[in-house]
């Protein structure tokens, strides 16, 4: 249900606490004490049938006995009583409940299921069960049994563990870091991580979101919410269970390589979330991101009074992928004049062990003025000649002075005072300077910020288009797979794999099936006549890897050797696997590429996230080498390049010594093709190419396996993919009033330049009517938000001139978190208005909304935009004056109303037919 009702849960006007006793260890009593201590100003009631009072507060026997209807109910009663309490709360009109009680069970017939179904009938939200509760300091709300009150701040914490949430509160109190909200969600019976990501992403009090995660229930929902939130603010996640057994016994190498934690890592990366690996790192990120610190880049200047400390910091920086800042000549000259002759004259800037506060300030000002550094780490080891506390005061004052003079600190400042006491920490806290106990902690924290910045940049990057170089023959590929499934098979035969790969333009070695040794000799004859050597491989649907049974013989150059080899591999297979049914052997020409790199590419299947693309170093020792990276499909070329770049083998793809480079883009494009196959053909359950050779001539698959299954057995919903792919079925044409046609398709991320050019052909007045204010320029970030759609929540159709390809107009919708109501917007090239394009695009959008199951389409229109208001009335929208702003009218279309979309269905027929 996403954010529905959560506003009243996190900002309640009244609270009821159900359960508890006078015992000090009672959860209900602890919650009551926290509610009172937090300064909550709303009404508070206590419901308890067994005690006349709880912690001195009088009780009533049930919710209906309260003189008010609470917005939030906190339940700590025994598990067996919870469903009845939820039912009573739902009937009363309660917005939500936090269920602290444990032991409700799981699955069909459990107390948890009964409570969840009851709450859903009443539109009531549930947090928990088995949770610590919720805290919203700015609303003076602490409806939890946490030991201490969190302070107000700008970081939201979502935790599947109450203990972790409590630890975060304790740590934050020591560092004077506050929270905008804390939610311990326990078993996630209703409200889950995705719901809270949606909520805090739009919460004005929240500038960063921290997550402690144990497992994801709904991958599509999680990925959609995470991607949306990460575009707006930093999202940092730590996941437990990293070392749990994830690599199952698999029939393909890709299946074996795709451990569960690696898939979670791929999901976090795809969503633009910053992953850390323990609570200390989570704390450090909260320290930085919670205060809005983001560096301009990855160049770090290090200022220290200890040369060894600076070298250690530089080593760690290089190890983590950072860059030591190169001092400008101007900075070196300036420091030469102001520092003693013995300073290092390089980064790290070692100002010697006798450095006092004045020397630190002189050097820090110079480094902050240096355009080559993105951040400055000020490190100190206390010496007898200069008290560390005094130096800390001077550094803090230096930063304050620069801020107060509005000469903004040119770079982020971090502090590492080794062996510092609490007084030094308090100095940096007061100056809002991130500080750490060691140089290692500081450098790691800096690099987490760099990775966050890189992830944010990647989310807004324009991916290159591939439609001009890659158009799969999806129908041919599907025919191969469906035919094999109809025969009851779980694996494609070698010739079928060749046909599948050819449909997706993936080069693969010629493969011919022979039923016997003599048949093998006949089919090898044409290759032998050309002087080519032959590879013979045993063919059995019961043997996944021929090499496991000695079923491969290479470099055969005569007819007799082919006959002998075919007999040998079949005999070996019968001996090693007596129960295996042999279909014969396969014949392939021997491929010899002197400098080819062996790669592995594939599709693995994950029960949570569905298909996963695997890439790495291939060969017979692939699992031992374990040089691999994973990504969630679909992929574009940017994502594919990034996937390749995360492996060690990527370094070998470039040229070295006398080995020519693999053409740039060949391997990433092949990964894009595989990802498209995963999106197009959900029946492909697992796919393994090992090895795929890559050299200066391109790529070639030597061996491949493809497992197939009915998709319903693998992943529920419209697609197995956790990230909804580009909806190509909505490509086609629209007919206008004058009989002309325009091309129409969903908007793509790579459309950003086209959209920018389109805006130049729209008058300033039309732009004002669309955006409600004058638009003088359109930034990359602004257009990226328009073009980079999450198709699980939004859609935009672009109309294109079929002759020039130029954009003529666009219409879009964005749904609410429940995927029931959507807001629309439309904009046309100014000189094309009045030709029926707007009408056709609106009908297409209405039809799309109905096809998606949306219930309502709405929008806001300036009252002076009479043309749009008239079209809305003609399309069946109701038009009413906005109660808060009379310069705006609200337009609403009930998509379930009979007669809506009567003409739109004809548009879909044309569109769908063209899309096929």
Secondary-structure content class: alpha/beta
Instruction: Report helical residue fraction.
Output: 25-40%
The neighbouring-strand order within the major sheet is 31-32-33-34-35-36-38-37
Low-confidence stretches: 245-249, 713-717, 908-916
Q: Major beta sheet, specifics?
A: 8 strands, mixed
User: Any idea what the radius of gyration is?
Assistant: 32 Å
This entry's quaternary arrangement is: single chain
The total of beta strands comes to 38
Calculate the terminal CA-CA distance, rounded to whole Å. Answer: 34 Å
What fraction strand? 15-25%
- Please count the helical segments: 30
Query: If you average the pLDDT, what whole number results?
Result: 88
What is the approximate shape? Answer: globular
List the helices and strands and how they pair.
Layout: H1 6-10, E1 14-18, H2 27-37, E2 43-47, E3 53-54, E4 57-58, E5 72-75, H3 82-92, E6 96-99, H4 111-121, E7 125-127, E8 133-136, E9 141-144, E10 152-159, H5 162-175, E11 179-184, H6 193-201, E12 208-213, H7 219-230, E13 235-239, H8 253-257, H9 260-271, E14 274-276, H10 279-289, E15 299-304, H11 307-319, E16 323-324, H12 329-338, E17 349-350, H13 357-369, E18 375-381, H14 388-404, E19 412-418, H15 422-430, E20 435-436, H16 439-459, H17 474-486, H18 494-503, E21 512-514, H19 517-529, E22 534-539, E23 552-556, H20 559-576, E24 584-589, E25 597-606, E26 610-617, H21 622-625, E27 628-631, H22 637-645, H23 650-653, H24 666-680, E28 684-695, E29 698-701, E30 704-708, E31 732-735, E32 741-746, H25 752-759, H26 764-771, H27 780-787, E33 794-800, E34 807-815, E35 821-828, H28 837-851, E36 856-862, H29 866-874, E37 878-881, E38 888-894, H30 904-915
Parallel strand pairs: 1-2, 1-5, 5-6, 6-7, 10-11, 10-12, 12-13, 13-14, 15-16, 15-17, 15-18, 18-19, 19-20, 35-36
Antiparallel strand pairs: 3-4, 8-9, 8-11, 21-24, 22-23, 22-24, 25-26, 25-28, 26-27, 28-29, 28-30, 31-32, 32-33, 33-34, 34-35, 36-38, 37-38
Helix pairs in contact: 3-4, 6-7, 7-9, 10-16, 11-16, 12-13, 13-14, 14-15, 17-18, 19-20, 22-24, 28-30
Keywords: ATP-binding, Ligase, Nucleotide-binding, Tricarboxylic acid cycle
Domain N-acetyltransferase: 742-898
Protein name: Bifunctional acetate--CoA ligase family protein/GNAT family N-acetyltransferase
């Amino acid at each position: 249900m996403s954010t529905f009702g959560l506003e009243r849960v996190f900002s309640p006007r009244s609270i009821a606490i159900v359960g508890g006793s006078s015992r000090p260890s009672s959860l209900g009593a602890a919650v009551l004490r926290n509610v009172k201590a937090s300064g909550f100003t709303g009404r508070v009631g206590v419901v308890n049938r067994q005690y006349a009072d709880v912690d001195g507060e009088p009780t009533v026997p049930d919710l209906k006995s309260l003189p008010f209807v609470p917005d939030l109910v906190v339940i700590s009663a025994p598990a067996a009583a919870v469903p009845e309490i939820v039912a009573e709360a739902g009937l009363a009109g309660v917005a939500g409940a936090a269920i602290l009680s444990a032991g409700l069970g799981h699955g069909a017939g459990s107390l948890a299921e009964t409570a969840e179904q009851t709450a859903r009938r009443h539109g009531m939200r549930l947090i928990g069960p088995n949770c610590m509760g919720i805290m919203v300091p700015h609303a003076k709300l602490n409806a939890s049994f946490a030991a201490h009150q969190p302070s107000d701040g700008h970081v939201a914490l979502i935790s599947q563990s109450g203990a972790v949430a409590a630890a975060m509160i304790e740590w934050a109190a020591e560092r004077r870091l506050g929270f905008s909200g804390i939610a311990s969600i326990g078993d996630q019976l209703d409200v889950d991580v995705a719901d809270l990501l949606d909520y805090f992403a739009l919460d004005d009090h929240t500038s960063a979101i921290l997550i402690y995660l144990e497992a994801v229930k709904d991958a599509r929902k999680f990925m959609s919410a995470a991607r949306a939130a990460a575009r707006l603010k930093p999202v940092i996640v730590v996941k437990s269970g990293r070392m749990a057994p994830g690599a199952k016994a698999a029939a393909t190498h890709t299946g074996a390589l795709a451990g569960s934690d690696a898939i979670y890592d791929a999901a976090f990366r795809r969503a633009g979330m910053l992953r850390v690996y323990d609570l200390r790192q989570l704390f450090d990120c909260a320290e930085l991101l919670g205060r809005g610190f983001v560096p301009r880049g990855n160049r770090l200047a290090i200022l220290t009074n200890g040369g060894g400390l600076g070298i250690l910091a530089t080593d760690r920086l290089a190890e983590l992928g950072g860059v030591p800042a190169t001092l400008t000549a101007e900075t070196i000259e300036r420091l030469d004049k102001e520092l003693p002759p013995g300073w290092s004259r390089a980064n790290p800037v070692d100002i010697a062990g006798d450095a006092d506060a004045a020397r630190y300030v002189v050097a820090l000002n110079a480094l902050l003025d240096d355009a080559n550094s993105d951040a400055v780490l000020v490190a100190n080891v206390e010496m007898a000649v200069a008290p560390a506390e005094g130096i800390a005061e001077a550094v803090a004052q230096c930063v304050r002075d620069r801020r107060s003079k509005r000469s903004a600190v040119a770079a982020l400042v971090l502090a590492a005072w080794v062996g510092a006491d609490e007084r030094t920490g308090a100095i940096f806290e007061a100056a809002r300077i991130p500080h750490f106990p060691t140089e290692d902690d500081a450098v790691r924290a800096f690099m987490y910020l760099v990775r966050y910045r890189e992830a944010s940049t990647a989310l807004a990057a324009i991916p290159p288009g591939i439609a001009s170089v890659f158009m799969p023959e999806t129908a041919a590929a599907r025919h191969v797979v469906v035919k094999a499934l109809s025969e009851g098979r779980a694996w494609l035969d070698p010739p079928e794999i060749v046909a599948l790969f050819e449909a997706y333009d993936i080069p693969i070695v010629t493969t011919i099936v022979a039923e016997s040794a003599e048949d093998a000799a006949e089919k090898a004859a044409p290759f032998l006549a050309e002087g080519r050597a032959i590879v013979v491989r045993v063919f059995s649907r019961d043997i996944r890897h021929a090499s496991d049974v000695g079923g491969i013989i290479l470099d055969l150059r005569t007819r007799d050797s082919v006959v002998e080899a075919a007999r040998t591999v079949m005999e070996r297979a019968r001996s090693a696997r007596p129960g295996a049914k042999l279909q014969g052997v396969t014949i392939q020409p021997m491929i010899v590429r002197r400098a080819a790199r062996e790669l592995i590419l594939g599709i693995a299947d994950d029960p949570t996230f569905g298909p996963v693309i695997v890439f790495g170093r291939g060969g017979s020792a692939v699992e031992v080498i374990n040089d691999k990276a994973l990504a969630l499909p679909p992929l574009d070329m940017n994502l594919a390049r990034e996937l390749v770049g995360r492996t060690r083998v990527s370094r070998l793809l470039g040229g070295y010594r006398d080995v020519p480079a693999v053409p740039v883009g060949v391997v990433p494009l092949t990964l894009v093709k595989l990802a498209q196959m995963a999106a197009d053909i959900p029946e492909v359950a697992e796919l393994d190419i090992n090895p795929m050779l890559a050299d200066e001539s391109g790529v070639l698959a030597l061996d491949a396996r493809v497992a197939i299954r009915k998709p319903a057995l693998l992943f529920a919903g419209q697609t197995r993919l956790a990230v909804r792919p580009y909806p190509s079925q909505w490509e086609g044409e629209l007919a206008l009033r004058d009989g002309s046609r325009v091309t129409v398709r969903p908007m793509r991320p790579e459309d950003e330049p086209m959209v920018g050019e389109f805006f130049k052909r729209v008058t300033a007045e039309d732009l004002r009517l669309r955006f409600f204010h004058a638009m003088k320029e359109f930034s990359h970030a602004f257009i990226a938000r328009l073009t980079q759609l999450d198709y699980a929540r939004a859609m935009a159709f672009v109309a294109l001139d079929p002759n020039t390809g130029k954009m003529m107009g666009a219409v879009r919708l964005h749904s609410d978190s429940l995927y029931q109501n959507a807001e629309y917007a439309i904009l046309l090239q100014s000189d094309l208005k009045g030709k029926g394009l707007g009408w056709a695009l609106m009908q297409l959008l209405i039809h799309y909304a109905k096809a998606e199951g949306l219930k309502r389409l709405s929008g806001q229109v300036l009252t002076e935009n009479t043309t749009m208001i008239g079209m809305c009335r003609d399309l069946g929208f109701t038009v009413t004056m906005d109660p808060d702003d009379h310069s705006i009218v609200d337009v609403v279309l009930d998509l379930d109303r009979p007669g809506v979309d009567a003409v739109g269905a004809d548009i879909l027929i044309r569109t769908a037919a063209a899309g096929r």
